[in-house]
Design brief:
The protein is of the alpha+beta class. It has a domain of 193 residues: Alpha-Beta Plaits. The chain is built from 20 helices and 16 strands. Strands 12-1-14-13 form a 4-stranded mixed sheet.
């Protein structure tokens, strides 16, 4: 066992209100300079929708992530040979139009316009060319289904749904959408790290944060192609690639990242997970149907004496182990099994997990104009959810519907137990049936409710103490050589770990 520590995150989608406060907090701190105008290291998308950049999920277009290659994996659109072929023209890289052309308003027009009957306006001017432009898109252009014909109906995940299922999501009484906040996943098998010809990307040894060395970056932009989540951006002004740094200066001083600290809905959780690095290649190269289970197996029990012993032997400090034992992420992902990764089929083994949105019961309007739920009870079962299971499994389970159903049964059990506690209109038979189907007891349901709804700041963010001396020692032992991830092992240019 080669036990490592990884700072991981959970986002609770049922609590996200789409206010973009997290995005603005990140923008103000990290990307408020020239060339970074269209960089949204944290962005909030509306699903169904094409996201940002447009259709980032469609790897037939962008060729991001890894693909199974026998007993290992290889990069889809980057790597030594592929990168050399596309070094001067990369057809798989997002264009500026896939993001948006950054602009400002020429407010002088408001003051210098000649007197007339029309109201003067400040023309939109490109920050790149300085010429007037017609605004075509923005980072949240399709917010709240506002661009339905052009955005929501073009969702890549719809390819797994029938036409009837797609249209049902836009019927007024069944319409549903949810917000999807995204940041860099700081993956265990990061495609961006494996793709960089100059070795500028690396994974920090002490906490697993993936960073770009700005001095070594040579603007090959292979990381932009390789990242299937499109969270590596090219700065057209500096000629360097940039990405989310998980606010590591804040983490080192015991503070939560800015996006998490500012979150109005308190949807964000951060904590440490211990994992076995020896299993990374086996997890990344397993069959698609096994991806979720195999990823969950790589995270280890921080209370297991054998794991604790191996972690200490590998240089992991006592404070990090304690942080892993108190980690809210471990509880959501491993203990309660209600959080799943986004698009695990990209095989990067992401460390950002999502608690699925348990949307209201589906309803209909009768001929008499009566609006009522389709289920016998107010709290319907999984089969009466508005959003199709197949759509969510495409997002969070590599098409495995059973994984979504398992999570929903557990979330539904928490909802029913709270209804029984507060309203007391659930019969004992109904409650026992729901709990049995979810393989859960009342105590566990109350624990989930507590961490979801009533958790304190310290419970939501368990930030381990910084141990920079460990990182320095690791760099001294491994050397800063080309191809080294900075994590104690090397990336093969076109292969898995």
């Amino acid at each position: 066992m080669d036990i490592r520590s990884q700072v991981s995150m959970v986002f609770h989608l049922d609590k996200c209100i789409g206010c973009h406060t997290c995005s603005i907090a990140c923008k103000n701190i990290w990307t408020d300079r020239k060339g970074a105008e269209y960089m949204w290291w944290n962005n909030v998308e509306t699903k169904p929708g094409t996201g940002y950049p447009t259709k980032w999920e469609d790897q037939e277009i962008y060729k991001g992530g890894w693909e199974k290659n026998g007993d290992s994996v290889s990069l889809k659109g980057a790597g030594k040979l592929k990168g050399l072929k596309n070094i001067f023209h990369n057809p798989n890289m997002p264009s500026l139009e896939d993001y948006y052309e950054p602009w400002a308003y020429r407010y002088t027009d408001l003051f210098e316009a000649p007197e007339g009957d029309d109201q003067p306006i400040g023309r939109a001017v490109s920050l790149i060319t300085g010429e007037p432009i017609e605004i075509q898109a923005g980072p949240n252009w399709d917010d709240d289904l506002s661009g339905t014909p052009d955005y929501a109906r073009q969702d890549v995940n719809f390819k797994h749904l029938s036409k009837a299922e797609q249209e049902s999501m836009f019927q007024l009484e069944r319409m549903t959408f949810h917000y999807l906040p995204r940041i860099c996943n700081h993956c265990l098998n990061p495609a961006c790290v494996g793709s960089c010809p100059s070795g500028a990307l690396y994974k920090r040894g002490e906490d697993g944060v993936v960073l770009i060395n700005q001095e070594r970056c040579r603007a090959w932009r292979m990381c932009v192609t390789a990242c299937p989540y499109k969270k590596s951006y090219y700065n057209w002004n500096t000629g360097k690639s940039e990405k989310c740094v998980l606010c590591y200066p804040r983490l080192e001083s015991g503070q939560a990242p800015a996006c998490m600290h500012s979150c109005v809905g308190r949807i964000r959780y951060l904590g440490v997970m211990l994992y076995d690095a020896d299993r990374i290649e086996a997890v990344a190269s397993c069959d698609e149907a096994e991806l979720i289970d195999r990823q969950m197996e790589i995270y280890l029990d921080p209370f297991d004496p054998a794991v604790i012993k191996a972690a200490k032997e590998n240089g992991i400090s006592d404070s990090t182990i304690v942080a892993a034992q108190n980690s809210p992420v471990y509880k959501f992902v491993k203990k309660w099994r209600i959080a799943l990764p986004l698009h695990p089929e990209f095989r990067t083994i992401p460390n950002l997990f999502y608690v699925l949105p348990l949307l209201p019961a589906m309803a209909s309007v009768s001929e008499d104009g009566v609006y009522d739920s389709l289920s016998e009870n107010l709290l319907s079962g999984v089969e009466k959810l508005r959003v199709p299971i197949r759509y969510l499994s495409s997002l969070f389970a590599a098409g495995n519907d059973n994984k979504i159903i398992e999570v929903f049964k557990r979330l539904h059990a928490v909802r029913v137990s709270r209804r029984d506690t507060t309203v007391k209109d659930v019969t004992e038979t109904q409650l026992n049936k729901v709990m049995s189907e979810a393989n859960m007891d009342i105590h566990e349901a109350n624990e989930i409710f507590r961490l979801t709804s009533l958790a304190t700041f310290e419970e939501r963010f368990v930030v381990p103490a910084a141990h920079r001396e460990e990182a320095i020692e690791m760099l001294e032992n491994t050397g800063d050589v080309k191809g080294n991830t900075g994590f104690g092992f090397k990336m093969k240019p076109e292969r898995g770990l």
